């Protein structure tokens, strides 16, 4: 690092998708994707990944919590803060009728803009059918409507046509490191922001 | 609290300028108590006027601290900065120097030696009191003028010397020059007639007397001034001396001798003093890059590193340079940060005292000190008038912010050390002679670097000044505020320097006077000097008559007048700013006094004094008469200047009128009358304005002038035993406070500072520690952590972190100059009631801390914030607020408001590092010094500003501005040495500028942003340069609109934007130019990329590819749930309900092995290797060999055609068959050069890959050494299994005779024979025999791969594209060879009549049979294996339109049409709506509209030709959404330069409509196109018509059964759509009577809709005239050259080791043919074969020519090469083989090029 490249800044995020809580669902797995703007590039790490299938323990007291502990480790570089990366989570699981790979929830969250360790709870939702016939069908088939492109949940366009139902929460722990933002004129908050009151 | 914090954050964005300023202020402020605390308590009685002090202090140096480092002499180095400043002040300071040197003479001496400077003369006899000097150190009001850096330096050296008492006792004071003292003594000496002196100056002068020659030359530049110096009165002389001297110093050409010459009247002492300081100046200048010592190989000490503050200073100066004249200038000036001053804050009293003792005379303006020992009443009385000064009528006069951001350390950013460029002098080499540096070494930062050793980092921490602490009492806080207020005043007095402005006014006045004299206007007013001095001394003695005679030239005169008026403007401005400066000084002094009063009130309330801060006020009694006289004089001068300026303006106007010819011949009188006419000079108004300003700005007449001094005195402290218990407790606690430090280098602990106690009275901690760290690697960060040991804590708590700045250059070891680094604790503390030591309450009131009644809550919060910061500004200064005894509850309010604070203050530290390496590089010579100085004297003062702005604009042309550029530019700028605003800049330039040039700029990027104003605001007109970031902003804007254009991130800075990305923005700017075709392009360069046509298409192709990539990113926002959500119903229907009945049935079906059923091809994406299957069935209508060929080569006349298919460089071939209608039935396989992923993304559609199926005729001869051999070979071949019978049959064709040269020759012998020969050739060629397979190219069928991919399978009969001219072959329809000469070649002659008829627009039906007969066709199929899944095109037939009636009509129409079987099955295409490029569904009729073609194209054939030449590109590529075909408008189509079927068809249709023809677009199918668009043209009302295929440029009569159009679905024009509902759907069998409702169903049936509505629905989207750009004829030559070169290279490359010879003789002939062919193509005719043949006749006699013209439309070079490759001509062989190549390019409008390539292989016939 003898030479500091001041033409871009780096965002390093590492952490894990720790667990999720989906009442009434078992056998969940989760897929994450990093959605970012046009000025961003992934330097290291995986832009998307799929966790293992995890089952909750029915006898446990916390009920429907499944643990994945799936590592997320990605380094992005950018020249522009616009399009700050988001983590898009898609949780799949068995449906009530036992059909696999049914959508359980979508969620997205921006990676924190402040360095440090962050614990993020992402409340997820899933689309519901727009027509009663589809309701009926999904009831019988145990299949749920899903987004054609999961990245829709990271965008603002086209959401208005859908109706969703909140369901479940995912816990994401992520450590964020930034490099070089100051050189580009971005003022980032101090790493340890303490408030005195 | 949170809110406060937020607000505080908001303030963090303080500009660096501000930070710099603050740092400077605080630095000086800190220094003051330190120095003062040490100061003796002796009282000084005599201090010269502040005015004098100011002037003198301009050059008063900080030499005083020069010996300060003597204690560490071995490490110490002197910075030339200091030496520069020393210049003038050195002179009168000698006594003090002596005094100091007596203390430590050896140290001082050694220090001087190190500085390579002559020993200072110790000869001044006058006794100097070093202690006095010291006592007043840092008190000179002028001393801080030098601004942040210098002040800091001097202060800290001072501090060190004070603190490290043992080591530095007596040191450092010697050089201290009270500037006013210097001035005073100078005065005194001048008055004494320069008789007093000492001989000490002489040796000094001799010691430094170098470079006499240069001095002489410099001297000669200003002889007049020297004379003047003598001639004037003494005060004049002094001033003149001063100005001259400054100028010469600036020029860098002054040495001691020069100085003595310059001031001939001065005493030797003066001369010596001047000389010495001049020498120092000069040395500094040398360091800064001039010639001199550096040239002679002396190593001169390192100039100090330029700090960021200094850079911001420069920039601020730049902005100050942009200020306008007049009152507005003041505000701008105030924005300028504290300059990089190097003024030592030295005592100012010693010298006056000395002067008094010596001369016994006192200046008239010297007053007595108000000792301010008893502060409250005395100073209150003193400042009564100030306090009661009227409320400022003028709201503007913003005071500079002096508050540092508490959360952001001021100087606290580490430098990024440029280790590569840095180098270090060996300590021993400092005084040794070294190699002279290269001139221009500025550019070579690494020159002279030897090696890279270990690094020694030396961190010197001198001390710590606290401005807030939790244990601070109210008094201590108040003391800190006094510091701040004092410093603000101090800085402003220094900066605006009324006295210096006065000097400047004098110089300006003289210049005006001289210029007036030159101008010699007889009628002008008396020169200012005459008024001023009276008649006894007329103005400079310039003869007016001579001057008048001089001015014979009107323009010269005008120039002079302008120059003069500029001078006057400058003078007026200087006058105004002098008043403003005084005004500011008064206001600021008042504020300081207010704070001081508050401090005293606090002390009074507490009844004790615990801080040693003393503010002294000096009152200079003023004489009312003198004041009035001075003001009257100034007013008179100003009035005069106004009058003259007005008169000059008027004269300019008159001159202008005279030039206009209106005042001709009337003589001077009328002109003058005219001048009066211009506008009368309102003298009274001006006078009243001037006096009003004076009344406002200046102190009341007769009122004493004030000057302030801050000092520290232990005497004021209350004895401990008198303190209250609480206070004693607090002091005990304070005494226990110990602050230590930890040095962290790269995050690792590198050393610790032992905790030191806090000196409570001075608010200071002294460290005086030097930490030396040895590093193996460069340090990235050097951070000083300050720690405070708290009670009961295990480890010390971190108070704050201070990142230290390491210089970019190695500064051998210890840096003497420390810098202040502001710090502020991260944590705040609550100043609880209990923590604030409560003083015993005075009887009258509770002890309120100073800002008790500050106002409401907001003010309180602000006050709290301020208090927590390092130095509190004193903005809220209502006098009433300071009234003591504001009540007990006020105290509680204060406690609440001041409850939060944080430990803050400054660390005085320095970082230096040293590496064992080579000597540092010295910058090269700076040549422009002298010229600049003279220029500064000659040109109007405004010039520096004006040229400065232009320069600023030019600096950053390269994008990145760095400080080195700034300095270079400033060096070239004529700065006014007399302008106090420029003074600091000049000094900075001299001392540090070149240094910066040599090393790398620090944080240049910041500068880029900061200097954006210069580029944005100053560049005039359209050539204005874009401000920084403009390009990036434009790109980001563009991307938000058209994301498809961008494939890569937009770089963070303009300078990094790649050229192609920048070009995206450029076309928009140069769009207007493009339209006229005058866009500038790189001329004279062969760079092909510069070719505009190429770039256009290439850009488009790239854009298209990117559009595909970015398609998912942005498009039409979804409107329906189905577009977003996948419902279960969408997924479940098929898999759940369908059961595989077919599979079951198949299970029970009988197996019939002999009749295998066709296996269905299963599409899959999994396979990685795909191939193209080309099944070639048969061909027909092929050309036949011309008789000439047969005769020439001796081969049979039977055609032996074979196919060579190539794709992406891979080729396969069929066997050759016999005859003109051969059957192959062969399947060829070609690997697809495309990955599976690309296939999945359908990226192939965007590739320009084309499958070329080239047809060749193979003529085989075998050559043997003898006839036997040849025959034997043939016989062997004939005997082979495959071709026995054919060989027998062809045996009769064997030519009996050989060639004249005796070569045995055998003609070809049938298919099998050839195959056998080929085999035998491949296996083992019989010795002495070779086979010559000569190939003739017959034609090509080119199928774009995108078509194959999108259709999945291409099958049918296709027309072969036969070159228009084949040598050696002729088409069957051509005239018989009997018509042609024996050796002529066959020429293709399609039905000329038909095309001729076409050309004139007539129906071509009559010629149809002939045209049809001429066509060569091939039947083949092409498919991909494994098959691809068919592309899904989801085009909503009836989109969701807003227009309900149209929707209803469309639904009805489509519903009715879909009921028909052909439409229901999709066989006949139907499309009512198309997606426009804007994403809207548009009725197809709206695309049809008569459009004017380019003016030069008139004939139908020309239009066809033009449309045909526009490159074809699949629309799927260009669409934003994958599944929709976008119909672009013709304008978009033309501007993009490519499109697919419908665009071509629409354009042709629109052209035809414009011609007046009746034209329709016909939508159907063709073999190559799932949706084929043809244009139907017919004479209005006629039954017959012609169908055009616009892409291929072919035409078919309606009755032509060979027309590839089939399954016609619909026809549309601008007004209606007709669906084909008749049973037939082949054009030749259909009824084309559109009125026939049984055959055609129309969309808009008459009467079904309102006509108005229909016309609205069909309103065209097309422009009536698309934008055309001129055909770029000039580009075509470039293109020709480039294409030819590329083909040449390519053929040579393909031939590999085989020799490739070029026959260049044929170029001209071939070119003629090509030109002709293009004309033919345009006109739709074919030249007579004879005419073309005649061109080649001569060549054909000696050569066998295999060659053909190829025509391609220009997209890129690859396409052309592929087309040439397909002909396989590079594989030709033969005797004396030579190639001929000619390229002909024809330019059409909109950068469309028809590229003709004639490539031929020639073999010798002899």
Which secondary structure elements does this structure contain, and how are they paired or packed?
The complex is a heterodimer of chains A (197) and B (1806).
Chain A: E1 9-21, E2 28-35, E3 40-45, E4 48-50, E5 65-78, E6 86-93, E7 102-110, E8 116-127, H1 132-141, E9 146-147, E10 164-179
Chain B: H1 2-12, H2 16-38, E1 46-47, H3 50-57, H4 80-86, H5 90-103, H6 105-114, H7 130-135, H8 148-163, H9 165-168, H10 179-191, H11 201-207, H12 212-221, H13 223-231, H14 234-251, H15 256-262, H16 268-287, H17 308-321, H18 328-335, H19 350-359, E2 367-370, H20 375-382, H21 384-387, E3 455-468, H22 474-496, H23 498-519, H24 528-533, H25 544-550, H26 554-606, E4 613-620, H27 624-660, H28 667-678, H29 683-697, E5 705-712, H30 725-736, E6 738-745, E7 748-759, E8 764-775, E9 782-788, E10 797-804, E11 819-824, E12 829-830, H31 857-868, H32 888-897, E13 900-901, E14 904-915, H33 929-938, H34 942-955, H35 963-972, H36 980-998, H37 1004-1010, H38 1012-1018, H39 1030-1041, H40 1059-1069, H41 1071-1076, H42 1092-1109, H43 1121-1124, E15 1125-1126, H44 1128-1137, H45 1141-1148, E16 1171-1180, E17 1184-1185, H46 1187-1194, E18 1201-1207, E19 1210-1213, E20 1223-1231, H47 1236-1240, E21 1250-1264, H48 1267-1278, H49 1284-1290, E22 1304-1306, H50 1310-1323, E23 1329-1344, H51 1345-1351, E24 1353-1359, E25 1369-1370, H52 1392-1399, H53 1408-1413, E26 1417-1425, H54 1444-1458, ...
Parallel strand pairs in B: 27-29
Antiparallel strand pairs in B: 1-2, 2-4, 3-8, 3-14, 4-5, 6-7, 6-9, 7-8, 9-10, 11-14, 12-13, 16-20, 16-26, 17-25, 18-19, 18-21, 21-22, 21-23, 24-26, 27-28, 30-31, 30-34, 31-32, 32-33, 34-35, 35-36, 37-39, 38-39
Helix pairs in contact in B: 2-8, 2-17, 2-22, 3-10, 3-23, 4-16, 4-36, 5-6, 5-10, 5-16, 10-14, 10-19, 11-16, 12-15, 13-14, 14-33, 15-16, 16-36, 17-18, 17-36, 20-26, 22-26, 23-26, 26-27, 26-29, 27-28, 27-29, 34-35, 34-38, 35-36, 39-40, 48-50, 49-50, 56-59, 61-64
């Amino acid at each position: 690092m003898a030479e500091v490249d001041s033409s871009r800044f780096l965002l390093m995020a590492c952490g894990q998708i720790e667990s999720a809580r989906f009442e009434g669902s078992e056998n969940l797995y989760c897929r994450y994707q990093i959605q970012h703007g046009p000025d961003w590039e992934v330097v290291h790490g995986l832009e998307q990944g799929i966790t293992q299938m995890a089952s909750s323990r029915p006898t446990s007291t916390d009920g429907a919590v499944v643990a994945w502990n799936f590592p997320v480790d990605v380094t992005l570089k950018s020249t522009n803060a616009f399009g700050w990366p988001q983590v898009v989570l898609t949780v799949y699981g068995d449906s009530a009728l036992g059909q696999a790979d049914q959508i359980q929830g979508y969620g997205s969250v921006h990676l924190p803009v402040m360095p440090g360790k962050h614990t993020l709870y992402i409340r997820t939702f899933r689309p519901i059918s727009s027509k009663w016939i589809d309701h009926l069908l999904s009831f019988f088939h145990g299949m749920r409507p899903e987004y054609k492109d999961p990245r829709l949940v990271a965008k603002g366009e086209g959401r208005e046509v859908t109706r969703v139902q909140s369901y479940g929460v995912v816990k994401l722990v992520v450590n964020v490191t930034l490099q070089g933002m100051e050189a580009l004129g971005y003022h980032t908050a101090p790493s340890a922001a303490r408030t005195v009151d | 609290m949170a809110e406060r914090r937020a607000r505080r954050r908001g303030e963090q964005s303080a500009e660096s300028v501000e930070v710099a300023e603050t740092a400077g202020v605080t630095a000086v402020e800190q220094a003051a108590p330190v120095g003062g605390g040490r100061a003796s308590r002796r009282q000084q009685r005599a201090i010269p006027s502040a005015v004098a002090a100011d002037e003198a202090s301009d050059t008063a140096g900080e030499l005083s601290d020069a010996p300060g480092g003597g204690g560490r002499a071995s490490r110490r180095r002197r910075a030339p900065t200091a030496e520069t400043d020393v210049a003038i002040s050195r002179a009168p300071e000698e006594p003090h120097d002596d005094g100091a040197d007596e203390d430590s003479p050896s140290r001082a001496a050694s220090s001087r030696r190190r500085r390579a400077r002559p020993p200072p003369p110790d000869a001044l006899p006058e006794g100097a009191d070093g202690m006095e000097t010291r006592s007043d150190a840092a008190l000179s009001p002028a001393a801080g003028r030098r601004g942040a850096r210098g002040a800091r330096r001097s202060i800290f050296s001072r501090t060190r010397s004070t603190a490290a008492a043992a080591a530095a006792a007596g040191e450092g004071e010697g050089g201290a020059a009270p500037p006013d003292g210097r001035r005073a003594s100078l005065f005194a000496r001048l008055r004494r007639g320069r008789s007093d002196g000492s001989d000490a100056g002489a040796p000094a002068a001799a010691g430094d007397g170098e470079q006499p020659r240069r001095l002489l030359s410099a001297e000669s530049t200003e002889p007049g001034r020297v004379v003047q110096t003598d001639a004037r009165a003494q005060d004049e002389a002094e001033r003149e001396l001063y100005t001259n001297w400054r100028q010469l110093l600036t020029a860098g050409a002054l040495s001691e001798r020069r100085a003595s010459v310059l001031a001939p009247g001065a005493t030797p002492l003066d001369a010596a003093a001047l000389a010495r300081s001049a020498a120092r100046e000069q040395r500094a200048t040398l360091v800064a890059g001039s010639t001199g010592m550096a040239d002679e190989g002396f190593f001169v000490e390192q100039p100090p590193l330029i700090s960021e503050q200094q850079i911001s200073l420069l920039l601020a100066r730049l902005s100050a340079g942009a200020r306008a004249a007049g009152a507005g200038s003041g505000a701008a000036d105030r924005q300028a940060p504290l300059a990089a001053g190097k003024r030592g804050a030295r005592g100012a009293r010693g010298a006056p005292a000395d002067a008094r003792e010596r001369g016994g005379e006192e200046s008239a303006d010297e007053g007595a000190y108000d000792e301010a020992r008893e502060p409250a009443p005395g100073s209150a009385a003193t400042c009564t008038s100030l306090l009661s000064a009227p409320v400022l009528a003028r709201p503007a006069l913003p005071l500079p912010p002096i508050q540092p951001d508490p959360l952001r350390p001021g100087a606290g950013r580490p430098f990024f050390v440029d280790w590569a460029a840095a180098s270090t002098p060996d300590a021993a080499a400092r005084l040794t002679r070294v190699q002279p540096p290269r001139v221009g070494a500025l550019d070579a930062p690494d020159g002279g670097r030897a090696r890279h050793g270990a690094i020694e980092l030396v961190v010197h921490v001198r001390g710590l000044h606290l401005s807030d602490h939790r244990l601070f009492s109210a008094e201590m806080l108040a003391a800190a505020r006094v510091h701040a207020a004092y410093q603000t005043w101090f800085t402003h007095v220094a900066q605006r320097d009324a006295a210096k402005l006065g000097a400047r006014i004098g110089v300006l006045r003289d210049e005006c006077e001289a210029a007036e004299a030159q101008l010699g206007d007889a009628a002008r007013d008396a020169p200012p000097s005459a008024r001023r001095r009276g008649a006894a001394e007329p103005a400079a003695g310039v003869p007016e008559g001579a001057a008048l005679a001089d001015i014979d030239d009107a323009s010269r005169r005008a120039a002079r007048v302008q120059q003069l008026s500029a001078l006057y403007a400058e003078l007026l401005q200087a006058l105004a700013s002098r008043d403003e400066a005084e005004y500011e000084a008064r206001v600021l002094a008042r504020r300081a006094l207010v704070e001081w009063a508050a401090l005293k009130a606090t002390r009074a309330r507490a009844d004790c004094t615990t801080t040693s801060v003393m503010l002294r006020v000096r009152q200079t009694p003023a004489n009312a008469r003198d004041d009035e006289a001075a003001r009257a004089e100034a007013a008179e001068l100003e009035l005069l200047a106004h009058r003259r300026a007005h008169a000059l303006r008027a004269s300019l106007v008159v001159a202008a009128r005279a030039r206009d010819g209106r005042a001709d011949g009337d003589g001077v009188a009328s002109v003058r009358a005219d001048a009066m006419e211009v506008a009368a000079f309102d003298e009274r108004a001006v006078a009243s304005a001037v006096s009003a300003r004076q009344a406002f700005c200046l102190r009341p007449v007769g009122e004493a002038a004030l000057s302030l001094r801050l000092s520290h005195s232990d005497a004021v402290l209350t004895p401990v035993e008198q303190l209250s218990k609480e206070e004693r407790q607090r002091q005990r606690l304070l005494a226990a406070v110990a602050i230590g430090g930890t040095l962290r280098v790269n995050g690792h602990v590198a050393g610790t500072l032992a905790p030191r106690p806090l000196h409570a009275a001075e608010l200071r901690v002294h460290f005086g520690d030097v930490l030396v760290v040895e590093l193996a690697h460069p340090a990235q960060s050097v951070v000083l952590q300050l720690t405070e040991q708290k009670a009961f804590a295990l480890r010390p708590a971190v108070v704050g972190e201070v990142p230290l700045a390491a210089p970019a250059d190695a500064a051998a070891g210890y840096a003497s100059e420390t810098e202040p680094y502001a710090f502020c604790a991260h944590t705040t503390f609550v100043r609880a009631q209990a923590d604030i030591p409560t003083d015993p309450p005075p009887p009258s009131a509770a002890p309120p801390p100073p800002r008790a009644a500050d106002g409401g809550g907001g003010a309180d919060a602000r006050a709290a914030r301020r208090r927590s910061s390092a130095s509190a500004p004193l903005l809220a200064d209502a006098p009433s607020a300071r009234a003591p005894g504001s009540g007990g509850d006020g105290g509680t309010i204060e406690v609440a408001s001041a409850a939060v604070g944080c430990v803050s203050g400054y660390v005085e530290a320095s970082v230096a590092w040293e590496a064992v390496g080579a000597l540092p590089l010295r910058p090269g010579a700076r040549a422009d010094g002298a010229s600049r100085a003279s220029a500064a004297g000659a040109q109007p003062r405004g010039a520096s500003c004006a040229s400065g702005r232009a320069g600023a604009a030019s600096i950053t042309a390269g994008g990145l501005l760095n400080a080195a550029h700034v300095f270079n530019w400033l060096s070239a700028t004529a700065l006014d040495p007399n302008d106090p605003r420029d003074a600091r800049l000049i000094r900075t330039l001299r001392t540090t500028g070149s240094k910066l040039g040599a090393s790398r700029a620090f944080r240049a990027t910041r500068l880029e942003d900061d200097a954006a104003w210069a580029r944005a605001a100053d560049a005039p007109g359209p050539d204005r340069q874009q401000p920084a970031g403009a390009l990036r902003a434009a790109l980001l804007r563009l991307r938000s609109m058209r994301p498809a254009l961008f494939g890569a991130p937009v770089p963070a800075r303009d300078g990094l934007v790649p050229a192609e990305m920048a070009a995206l923005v450029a076309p928009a700017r140069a769009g207007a130019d493009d339209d006229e075709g005058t866009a500038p392009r790189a001329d004279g360069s062969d760079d092909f990329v510069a070719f505009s046509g190429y770039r256009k298409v290439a850009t488009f192709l790239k854009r298209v590819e990117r559009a595909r990539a970015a398609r998912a990113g942005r498009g039409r926002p979804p409107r329906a749930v189905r577009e977003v959500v996948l419902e279960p119903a969408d997924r479940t229907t098929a898999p759940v309900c369908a059961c595989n009945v077919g599979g079951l049935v198949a299970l029970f079906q009988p197996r019939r092995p002999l009749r295998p059923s066709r296996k269905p091809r299963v599409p899959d994406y999994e396979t990685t290797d795909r191939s193209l299957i080309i099944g070639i069935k048969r061909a027909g209508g092929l050309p036949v060999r011309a008789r000439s060929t047969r005769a020439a080569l001796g081969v049979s006349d039977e055609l032996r055609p074979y196919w060579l298919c190539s794709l992406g460089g891979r080729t396969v071939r069929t066997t050759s068959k016999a005859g003109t209608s051969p059957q192959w039935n062969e399947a060829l396989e070609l690997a697809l050069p495309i990955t599976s992923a690309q296939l999945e993304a359908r990226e192939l559609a965007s590739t320009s890959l084309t499958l070329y199926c080239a047809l060749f005729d193979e003529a085989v001869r075998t050559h043997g050494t003898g006839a036997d051999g040849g025959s034997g070979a043939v016989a062997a071949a004939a005997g082979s299994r495959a071709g026995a019978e054919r060989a027998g049959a062809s045996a009769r064709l064997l030519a009996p005779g050989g060639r004249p040269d005796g070569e045995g020759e055998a003609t070809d012998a049938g298919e099998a024979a050839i195959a056998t020969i080929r085999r035998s050739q491949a296996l083992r060629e019989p010795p002495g025999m070779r086979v010559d397979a000569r190939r003739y190219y017959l034609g090509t069928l080119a199928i774009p791969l995108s078509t194959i991919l999108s259709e999945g399978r291409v099958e049918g009969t296709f027309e072969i594209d036969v070159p228009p001219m084949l040598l050696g072959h002729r088409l069957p329809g051509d005239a018989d060879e009997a018509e042609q000469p024996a050796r002529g070649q066959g020429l293709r002659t399609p039905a000329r009549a038909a095309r001729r008829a076409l050309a004139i627009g007539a129906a071509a039906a009559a010629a149809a049979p002939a045209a049809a007969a001429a066509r060569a066709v091939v039947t083949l199929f092409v498919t991909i294996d494994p098959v691809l899944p068919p592309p899904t095109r989801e085009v909503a037939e009836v989109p969701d339109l807003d227009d309900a009636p149209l929707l209803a009509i469309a639904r009805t129409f489509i519903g009715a049409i879909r009921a028909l079987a052909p439409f229901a099955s999709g066989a006949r295409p139907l499309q009512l709506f198309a997606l426009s490029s804007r994403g809207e569904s548009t009725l197809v009729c709206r695309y049809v509209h008569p459009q004017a073609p380019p003016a030069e194209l008139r004939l139908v054939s020309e239009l066809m030709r033009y449309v045909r030449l526009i490159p074809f590109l699949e629309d799927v590529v260009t669409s934003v959404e994958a599944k929709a075909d976008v119909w672009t408008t013709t304008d978009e189509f033309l501007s993009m330069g490519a499109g697919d079927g419908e665009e071509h068809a629409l354009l042709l249709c629109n052209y035809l409509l414009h011609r007046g023809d009746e034209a329709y677009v016909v939508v159907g199918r063709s073999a190559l196109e799932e949706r084929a668009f043809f244009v139907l043209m017919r004479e209005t009302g006629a039954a017959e018509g012609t169908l055009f295929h616009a892409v291929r440029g072919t035409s078919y009569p309606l009755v032509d059964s060979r027309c590839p159009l089939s399954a016609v679905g619909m026809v549309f024009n601008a007004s209606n759509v007709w669906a084909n509902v008749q049973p037939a759907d082949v054009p030749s069998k259909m009824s084309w009577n559109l009125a026939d409702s049984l055959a055609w169903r129309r969309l808009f049936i008459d009467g079904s809709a309102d006509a108005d509505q229909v016309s609205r629905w069909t309103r065209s989207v097309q422009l009536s005239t698309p934008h055309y750009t001129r055909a770029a004829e000039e580009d075509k030559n470039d293109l020709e050259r480039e294409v030819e070169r590329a083909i040449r290279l390519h053929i040579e490359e393909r031939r590999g080791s085989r020799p490739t010879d070029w026959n260049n003789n044929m170029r001209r002939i071939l070119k003629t043919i090509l030109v002709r062919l293009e004309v033919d193509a345009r006109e739709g005719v074919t030249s007579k074969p004879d005419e073309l043949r005649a061109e080649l006749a001569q060549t054909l006699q000696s050569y066998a020519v295999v060659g053909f013209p190829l025509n391609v439309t220009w997209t890129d070079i690859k396409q052309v090469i592929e087309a040439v490759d397909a002909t396989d001509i590079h594989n030709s062989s033969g005797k004396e083989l030579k190639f001929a190549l000619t390229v002909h390019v024809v330019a059409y409008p909109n950068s469309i090029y028809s590229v003709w390539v004639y490539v031929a292989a020639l073999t010798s016939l002899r």
